[in-house]
Amino acid sequence: MTSAIYTASIPVFKQMLGGLSEVLAKAEAHAASKKIDPNALLQARLFPDMFALLRQVQVATDFAKSVSARLAGVELPKLEDTEQTFAELQVRIATVLKFIEGLDAASFDDAATRQIVTQAGTAKEKRFTGQSYLFNYGLPHFFFHTTTAYAILRHNGVEVSKKDYIGTY
């Protein structure tokens, strides 16, 4: 039997990252068809104190990979955050998808009760059970950043819909 934590995390991350990839593809096509510098979209933000689109995608993928890794009890893969183009963001998404798709469902069997510690030894250290980590921390942050990336593009005239955001399920 597959772990409920696996079922509530990996398929959700895969679906939403697939949607994010499609939204970014539409944004890149939009920029090309309207002769807009792609950086205008990549650096767009909803408000000056918020991350730009580029960073929203990086953080969303960071949550997908780190939450998955911690719940599976495996080492967190490191991504350098050097992406500057739509193509590089697509590679990042594909890299994270490949990583999470490679996780063994059995490694999530005790994930609900596994102790998760983030930023250990710092003032920002947080301790969770795996279940709390996923439902109260990981998924909300992941959805915030994927939703904000979508909203930035929609706000900037990219013709995307809720179906694009949701992805294939």
What's the short story on this structure?
The chain is mainly alpha-helical and 169 residues long. Helix content is 60%, strand content 5%.
Itemize the secondary structure elements and their pairings.
Blueprint: H1 4-33, H2 38-42, H3 53-72, H4 86-101, E1 115-118, E2 126-129, H5 130-155, H6 162-166
Antiparallel strand pairs: 1-2
Helix pairs in contact: 1-3, 1-4, 1-5, 3-4, 3-5
Q: Which structural class best describes the helix and strand composition?
A: mainly alpha
Q: What's the CATH H-level superfamily name? A: dinb family like domain
- CATH topology: the name is Four Helix Bundle (Hemerythrin (Met), subunit A)
Q: State the major sheet.
A: 2 strands, antiparallel
Q: Roughly what is the average pLDDT, rounded to an integer? A: 96
Q: Low-confidence parts lasting 5 or more residues at pLDDT below 50?
A: none
Q: What would the principal axes of the Cα set say about the shape?
A: globular
Biggest sheet, spatial arrangement of strands: 1-2
At the first level of CATH, the class is: Mainly Alpha
> What is the CATH architecture descriptor?
Up-down Bundle
- Tally of discrete structural domains: 1
Q: Kindly state the number of beta strands.
A: 2
> Which radius of gyration do the C-alpha atoms yield?
16 Å
How far is the N terminus from the C terminus? 21 Å
Beta content? under 5%
Question: What is the helix fraction of residues, given as a range?
Answer: 55-70%
Question: What would your notes on this structure say?
Answer:
By secondary structure, the protein is mainly alpha-helical. It has a single domain, classed as Four Helix Bundle (Hemerythrin (Met), subunit A), CATH 1.20.120. The chain contains 6 helices and 2 strands. It has helices at 4-33, 38-42, 53-72, 86-101, 130-155, 162-166, and strands spanning 115-118, 126-129. Strands 1-2 form a two-stranded antiparallel ribbon. α1 packs parallel to α5 and α3 runs antiparallel to α5. 31% of the residues are buried. The model has no long low-confidence stretch (mean pLDDT 96).
